[in-house]
Amino acid sequence: MWCLVLKITLLVHGDSDGVVSGALAYKFFMTKYKLHSIDVFFSHPAGLHADLKDFAKPGDIVFIADIALSELHLEELIKLFEIYSNKGELIYVDHHPEPINIKVKELPGTIVYDKCCSTSELTYRFFENQLGFEYSRIALYGAIGDYLDETVWVKEAMEKWDKRSIYFEAGVLSQGLEASRKMYDFKRHIVKHLSENRLPSSLSELLVRALIESINEEELRIWVKQNKQSMENIGYVIEPPGSLGRAANYAKTYTGKPVGLAASKHRNNYVMSLRAKRNIDLNKILRIITPKYHGTGGGHPFAAGARIPISYFREFLQTLNTTIGKYMET
Question: Does the pTM of the predicted model rise above 0.70?
Answer without folding.
Answer: yes
